[in-house]
UniProtKB/TrEMBL annotation:
Coiled coil ranges: none
A GO MF label: kinase activity
Name of the protein in its database record: Pyruvate phosphate dikinase, PEP/pyruvate binding domain
Keywords: Kinase, Pyruvate, Transferase
Taxonomic source organism: Thermoclostridium caenicola
Residues annotated as transmembrane: none
One Pfam family, short name: PPDK_N
Taxonomic lineage of the native organism: Bacteria, Bacillati, Bacillota, Clostridia, Eubacteriales
Length: 847
C-alpha cells in the first residue's frame, strides 16, 4: 500500500489498528450520542487540515453542526424534498467536487424526520456510497445505535467499507471495529480504549465482558414507519384536537405534502381512516394519487350522501404498495446510477429504454416478497388488477390518464405461478414510468425533474364468474360536467357516462372498430348525431373479459357472451335487433339465435342506475368544488345493483370562455367548415396559421406500412408547428391503433397542434368517435387542444376541403423526404383563417 493512498482518522493509535483509512472508504459510526460522532469528526478534520486535504461537509439535519470552520466547503441539502431529489443533488455535488475529497455527513438517523422510513435511509446509503468509492473519497457517516432495523444495519454493513461501534462510558471512549474491508490483524476486531492518540486493545475476557454488559444492545426494532403507526393506535381515544394533529402528521406520510387534495382528505378522513389505510400498505411511503382519489371519493359519498348510496356501493378491500418500494427496487438492483443519468436533460430519453428493460427484470427484497405472498393469500384466486398510482397522478392539474400501465392478474394456477404473475405485473407498472408517452407528458408539463415515485394500487377485480369468464355487467367512466355537447338542449351540468358491457378497458381507450355508449344523464336515451341505420354500426360489438381457462384478458364477440348465465336478465343491457332478425330471415338463415343490439335501454329507463350516477357525480363535484371524472363498474341482480367506485379525480378542463359572436356566412363556400355542436374546448376565436389535411381516399389506398409512415410524418410536422397556430384535420379517429380507421399517431406526435379535427367520410367508411373521457381525449383537454368532429353530410354541417386543397402544398418544406405522400398530406398556410365557437349557441365556424 502506497503511503499516499493512506488517510488518517486523526487518531494515530487507531490508524495502526485498522491500518489507516484508504481512498474509497466509507466509514459508518454507530453512536449513542451526537457528541461521540462530533469528537471523531474533529480528529478527522484536524488531520485533513494538517495534510492539506480538501474536506467537504454535507449538512441536512436539524442537529447542531458536527463540523465548525474546519472544512473547505459546506453544502446545505434539503431532505424534505424527497429521497430522489435529495440523493440526486448529493450525487451531483460529489461529481462536481471530483476525486480524492474527504466528506463528513450529518447523522443519517435524522433523515427519519423527513422520510419516516429506515428503508429509505438504507436506500440512500446504498445509492451514494458506491459513487463515493468510485471517486476515491473518504466519507464519514453516523447512525444512532438502537434506532434502526436489523435489515437497515445489515444493508449498511454490506455496502460500507468500515463499520465502527463508538461507545463513551464514564468519560472513556471505546471503538469496536465491526467491519474493516480488505484489512485484517489478529486484534483488529477487539474493542479498543482510546487514550489521547493511543488505542489500547481490550483482549481480556473479563474486561471485554464488563464493557459489553454495561452497553444497552436494544431490542429488535420495527421500521420507524411501523413504530409511528403502531404508536398512533393508542391515540384513538385521545381528545379530538390531539387526534387531528396526529392525523395530519400521518397523512403527510401517506398522502403527501400540504395541497388541495391534502385539504380535502383532511376534511373527510379521521385518524381511524388513516390507520385503516396504513394497515393495508405494503412497504412504506406514499400510496399515490389514484389510491387517494378512490379512497377520498368513497369517503365523500359515505359522509355527505347519508344513506342514499349505502345500499348500492360495493365495498373495496384494496392494498397499496408504497412508493418507497419503487426506489428500493431500483437501488437494490444496482440501477441508481442509470436512474440519475436518465434524469438529466441529455439522458431523459436516451437512457429510458435501457432503464425500462432493467425494470422488467429485477428482484424484490425478501421482506417485500413476503408481504406480496401474504396479500395474494388474502385474495386467493380472485382476479386482481395491479394499477399505477404515482405521486402526481389524478391530482388537480395532472391526470396522467393512460400514461402508466395497469395489469390484470386473472390469478389462476399454483401459488408459485400466481406469485410470479403478480410480481411481473408490478415490474410492468414500474417499467411504464419509462414509456415515451409518459416521459413526453411529464416534460411538456414541466414535471421532468420532479420526484415521481410510483406507488401501486392493487384492487380485487369487480364482477362475477359467468361460465369460464369473469367480468362486471357494466363499466365505464363518468363526468360531472359534459363538455362534449352536440345538442343545445343538453344540460352540461347533469354529467355524462361512457358505458360498456364487460370490463371497463373499452371505456377508457379508443377501442378500434367498436364504440361505447354515450349517456347524457339529463336524458339517458338521447343519442349522439347519427342516423337510425348507423346506431347498430356505431355501438359496442365486442367486450373485454378475463378468461379463467386461458388465464388472460381476452376480447369476445357480444354474441358469444350474451347467452352465458349472466345472473341477471340480458335485456337490461341489450335489446332484440328486429331489423337484423328480418334480414337474416330474408337471407334464408333458419338456425340462429335472436340478434341483440347493445343499447342499455332497459338499464337506462327501468332502473335507478342513471339517477344514482348523476347524484354521485354531483355530490363528488360539490365536495371537490370542481368538475370530476370517475371510473366505475356495476353488477346487477334483477334490477338491484352494486356500483364499485374505482377511481375519482379532478376533471382536467379549460374554462368555457367568454361568449363569441359568430360571423354570418353569405355563401356556404366561404368557409372551411361549419356546424352545430360536436366540438370541445369552450368558446374561442382563434387565428389559424397552418392546416395539415389528410385526404381520406388517398390515405385509404396506402399499404398498412405506408399508413404508419404517414403517422410518423405527422410527428415530424408537429415538431415544426411548435409555437404556431396549426390545425390537424384527418379522417376517422386520430390515435387509432388500426390504421384503416384513422391515422395511428401517438399523442406526442400531435401535441403541438392548437386544433384537432376528425371528419366522417361515409364513402371510405371513416367515422369520428365521440370519445370524450378516453385517455386520448384527456390528453387533448389537458393540453388545451380544441377538438372538432365534422360529420360531413349531416344536417347543419358544411365541409369544404377544397379551401385547403387548392392552396399550395408545403409538405416538403417541413418534411423534405416526403414528396411521395403529397396526395395524402396537404400542408397549407392559411393567413387570415379564423376558428369561432360559442358554447352557448353551440355554433362553430372556421373560415
Amino acid at each position: 500500500m502506497n503511503l499516499f493512498d493512506k488517510v488518517s482518522t486523526g487518531l494515530k493509535g487507531f490508524d495502526q489498528v485498522i491500518d489507516h483509512l484508504r481512498f474509497g472508504d466509507n466509514v459508518v459510526w454507530q453512536v449513542d450520542t451526537l457528541k461521540g460522532y462530533k469528537d471523531m469528526v474533529h480528529s478527522f478534520a484536524e488531520s485533513a487540515r494538517t495534510e492539506n486535504m480538501r474536506m467537504v461537509y454535507i449538512r441536512f439535519a436539524r442537529h447542531e453542526p458536527v463540523l465548525d470552520g474546519r472544512c473547505d466547503k459546506v453544502y446545505h441539502v434539503d431532505a424534505s424534498k424527497g429521497f430522489e431529489s435529495f440523493a440526486i443533488e448529493i450525487h451531483n455535488l460529489i461529481k462536481e467536487e471530483g476525486r480524492r475529497v474527504l466528506y463528513v455527513f450529518d447523522c443519517l438517523t435524522d433523515l427519519l424526520e423527513y422520510w419516516h422510513s429506515d428503508l429509505m435511509i438504507g436506500n440512500f446509503f446504498k445509492a451514494t456510497c458506491p459513487y463515493l468509492y468510485e471517486l476515491d473519497t473518504v466519507a464519514y457517516f453516523a447512525i444512532m445505535r438502537n434506532c434502526h432495523t436489523y435489515s437497515t444495519i445489515a444493508g449498511i454493513r454490506e455496502t460500507t467499507q468500515l463499520l465502527l461501534d463508538l461507545y463513551q462510558i464514564s468519560d472513556k471512549t471505546y471503538i469496536h471495529p465491526l467491519k474493516v474491508w480488505q484489512r485484517y490483524s489478529p486484534t483488529m476486531f477487539f474493542p479498543h480504549l482510546i487514550q489521547d492518540q493511543e488505542a489500547v486493545c481490550i483482549t481480556s475476557s473479563a474486561d471485554a465482558s464488563e464493557l459489553f454488559t454495561s452497553i444497552n444492545r436494544g431490542e429488535i426494532r420495527l421500521d420507524y414507519w411501523n413504530t409511528i403507526f403502531n404508536n398512533a393506535k393508542s391515540m384513538l381515544g385521545a381528545p379530538h384536537e390531539e387526534q387531528e394533529t396526529l392525523k395530519k402528521q400521518l397523512m403527510s406520510m401517506l398522502i403527501g405534502s400540504d395541497s388541495r387534495m391534502f385539504k380535502l382528505c383532511d376534511r373527510y378522513f379521521t385518524l381511524r381512516d388513516i390507520l385503516a389505510i396504513a394497515s393495508r400498505e405494503i412497504g412504506t411511503g406514499f400510496i399515490g394519487g389514484k389510491s387517494v382519489g378512490m379512497l377520498l371519493a368513497r369517503k365523500i359519498l359515505e359522509a355527505d350522501g347519508g344513506a342514499r348510496f349505502a345500499s348500492c356501493l360495493e365495498p373495496h378491500d384494496s392494498f397499496y404498495i408504497g412508493s418507497d418500494v419503487f426506489y428500493t427496487y431500483i437501488v437494490q438492483n444496482g440501477w441508481w446510477t442509470l436512474r440519475i443519468r436518465q434524469k438529466t436533460p441529455e439522458g431523459y430519453f436516451k437512457y429510458a429504454a435501457e432503464l425500462k428493460e432493467k425494470l422488467l427484470h429485477g428482484t424484490f427484497p425478501k421482506d417485500i416478497q413476503e408481504q406480496f405472498i401474504q396479500m395474494l393469500e388474502y385474495f386467493g384466486q380472485s382476479p386482481i388488477i395491479v394499477r399505477s398510482s404515482s405521486l402526481l397522478e389524478d391530482n388537480f392539474g395532472n391526470a396522467f390518464a393512460g400514461k402508466y400501465q395497469s395489469v390484470f392478474c386473472v390469478n389462476q394456477g399454483t401459488p408459485q405461478e400466481r406469485y410470479e404473475a403478480f410480481e411481473q405485473a408490478v415490474r410492468t407498472v414500474y417499467a411504464s414510468t419509462m414509456n415515451e408517452d409518459a416521459l413526453t407528458y411529464r416534460l411538456k408539463r414541466g414535471l421532468a425533474q420532479k420526484d415521481e415515485q410510483m406507488a401501486i394500487l392493487v384492487q380485487r377485480v369487480s364482477g362475477d364468474q359467468h361460465g369460464d369468464y369473469f367480468f362486471p355487467h357494466v363499466a365505464g367512466v363518468g363526468f360531472s360536467t359534459n363538455l362534449y355537447v352536440w345538442d343545445e338542449s343538453i344540460d352540461m351540468n347533469a354529467g355524462m357516462l361512457r358505458l360498456v358491457f364487460g370490463m371497463g378497458t373499452r371505456a377508457v381507450d379508443r377501442t378500434d372498430g367498436d364504440y361505447v355508449k354515450i349517456v347524457c344523464l339529463d336524458n339517458p336515451l338521447r343519442n349522439p348525431p347519427m342516423s337510425e341505420e348507423d346506431q347498430k354500426k356505431f355501438s359496442q360489438h365486442r367486450l373485454d373479459l378475463l378468461s379463467f381457462t386461458r388465464n388472460a384478458l381476452e376480447s369476445k364477440d357480444l354474441g358469444e357472451v350474451l347467452f352465458l348465465p349472466l345472473k341477471t336478465e340480458k335485456e337490461l343491457f341489450a335489446s332484440p335487433d328486429y331489423v337484423a332478425l328480418a334480414r337474416m330471415r330474408e337471407l334464408g338463415y333458419r338456425d340462429f339465435r335472436m340478434p341483440y343490439l347493445l343499447d342499455f335501454r332497459k338499464l337506462l329507463t327501468k332502473t335507478r342506475f342513471p339517477a344514482i350516477m348523476r347524484e354521485m357525480l354531483a355530490l363528488l363535484s360539490k365536495a371537490y368544488d370542481y368538475p370530476v371524472d370517475i371510473e366505475f363498474t356495476a353488477n346487477f341482480k334483477d334490477e338491484a345493483f352494486k356500483i364499485n367506485l374505482l377511481q375519482c379525480r379532478p376533471l382536467q378542463t379549460k374554462g368555457l370562455g367568454k361568449t363569441v359572436t359568430i360571423p354570418e356566412l353569405k355563401d356556404v363556400k366561404d368557409c372551411f367548415f361549419s356546424g352545430k355542436g360536436n366540438f370541445m374546448g369552450g368558446s374561442v376565436r382563434l387565428s389559424i396559421d397552418y392546416v395539415i389535411f389528410i385526404g381520406a381516399g388517398a390515405y385509404l389506398k396506402l399499404s398498412e406500412r405506408e399508413k404508419y409512415e404517414v403517422a410518423r410524418l405527422i410527428g415530424l410536422i408537429n415538431r415544426a408547428m411548435k409555437g404556431k397556430n396549426a390545425m390537424l384535420v384527418g379522417p376517422g379517429r386520430w390515435g387509432s391503433t388500426t390504421p384503416s380507421l384513422g391515422v395511428p399517431v401517438h399523442f406526442a406526435e400531435l401535441c403541438n397542434m392548437k386544433v384537432l379535427c376528425e371528419y366522417a367520410s361515409k364513402k371510405e367508411g371513416f367515422m369520428p368517435e365521440l370519445s370524450y373521457g378516453s385517455h386520448f381525449f384527456q390528453d387533448i383537454v389537458e393540453s388545451g387542444i380544441f377538438y372538432v368532429a365534422i360529420f360531413d353530410g349531416y344536417q347543419d354541417v358544411i365541409f369544404n376541403p377544397d379551401r385547403i386543397l387548392t392552396a399550395e402544398n408545403l409538405l416538403t418544406t417541413f418534411a423534405p423526404e416526403s414528396g411521395r405522400f403529397a396526395d395524402v398530406i396537404h400542408v397549407a398556410e392559411t393567413v387570415g383563417m379564423e376558428l369561432y365557437s360559442d358554447i352557448v349557441t353551440q355554433r362553430l365556424l372556421c373560415r
